[in-house]
Structure formats: C-alpha cells, structure tokens
Amino acid sequence: MVSKLQSSSRYKSKKKAFTKYSKKWKDDLGKKEIEKDFAKMAKYCQVIRVIAHTQMKLLKKRQKKAHIMEIQLNGGSVADKIKFAREHFEKQVTISQVFSQDEMIDCIGVTKGHGYKGVTSRWHTKKLPRKTHKGLRKVACIGAWHPSRVSFSVARAGQKGYHHRTEINKKVYRIGLGSDKANAKTEFDPVEKSITPMGGFPQYGIVRQDYIMVKGCVMGTKKRPITLRKSLITQTKRVAFEKITLKFIDTSSKFGHGRFQTAEEKKSFMGPVKKDKIASEKAATKA
To answer: Which residues, other chains included, contact 38 with Cβ-Cβ below 8 Å and sequence gap of 6+?
Structure first.
C-alpha cells in the first residue's frame, strides 16, 4: 500500500470569503439590488442590528482573530437607523462616541474559571468537625428520606466559575485617549504620566489605545473580552447623577511594593545606577 506524500509547503489561505458578495458593491446592477434590500428593510423591519468586530491588530497580543458581535441600534425611526448604520460601515467607532464620563453602564462577561470544586469552596458551607468519618469538607445531611430526591437548594459539588454574568450600574470614572501621553494626569496631580503603571499591567502590558475606567471590579481574567452596555434601568438615585472629579491615579508598580509613580521620580530618588554608568561608558567609547 503506497501512501501519497503531501507537499510540506505551508498552507496559504485563498481568501475567498465574501469575494462574490463584494462585487455587488462595484456593479451598477448590484448597487440597485442593495438599494432594493435597504428599501425593503426600511418598509418591513422593526429592529435593525449591525455586525461589529474588534481590532485585534491594535493590541499586539497573541490572538489575531477578531471578536464579532451583533449590536442592536436604538433611537429614531427605522430609516434613521439604516442611515446611521450605512454612514458607519467599515469605520472605527471609538469608546468616547458611545459612552461618556459619569454615566452608569453594565458589564457583561465570563467570570474566572476555577474548575470542579467541592461544597466548601463552591458554596462556602461550614466545615464539619475534625474527627468526621470520610472527610469534613462535606454537607452533613443532604435532605430527608422523603421527598426521595435531593432539593435544588442543597449545596453540591460541581463547576465553579467560568459563568456568564451581567453586572449593572458601573460608574464611568474616566475615558482616556491613547494618543494623550499624560492620560493619567489630574487637576490635583499635574505630573505628566500615562495610565500604564511602572512595569506595565501584570499579565497585560502597556495600554496604548483609548481606555475606560469604571468603579468596582469587572468579571473575568486579564485580556478577556468584556461587553459594555448602556444601562437599561432608568436612573433615579443621586449616586447615578454624581459628577466625579478624580484627584489622584496611582501608577506605581503593581508587581512589587510600588514606591514610585514615574520613571523620572525613581531616577531622581535612586540616583545614577549601574546600567546608566555602562550606557554612558559605551557612549563615550563610541564618541
């Protein structure tokens, strides 16, 4: 039996996706067909949604595949929604175009996974006494003889974490621009500094794009995508309408003890170190 040897050269994508569809936008006949579809949408549709994707190439992380999401457009008539969607085709939508400071928003995402866990870790039940037979990280009684089944309210072992969650009413403290080199500066702390702490964010790195700062914690691990949404609740509490004035943003290192806010502050305190001396010697020898 002879087996065929496949070519060892690397596979290259033919990039055939949507090639025939994209020709529609070039032909006059295709354009008429598209306009007909839009007219049909304006006449019969009640809900208009757009397909949006993230720009992974801007982050320069390991992942290259974009996250794709269907987003519903709200406000105005159906014709207005279609017009808005057409105006924003193939265009970047920045976070400042959607959200604003002091607004209440919702965060949707997947929590940090912890695998299969017992009742003590999963439901925080009380541990049994030390001398308990066959283990003490258990539930002592899981129910009466009858009804002859275990109730849903009894703590059992199982999956902990990696659950889809929605957290509502997160206050937006700041929306910073990636192009601004002093995007962590405040009125009370006028030092020119970036939002990235010294040494970078642990397991993430340097923030080079626009960022949003919200009050409280956000579900999930580092680099996990989070969906941000406008609040569905009509806000009535005073907290929701409070104007936030940040006085200080801590940019000290998140790896160690974090004594210094900027590299210049560290340099002025530490004085010339060995690596500076080596660099100056190298520069002198070159000159």
So the answer is: 82, 86
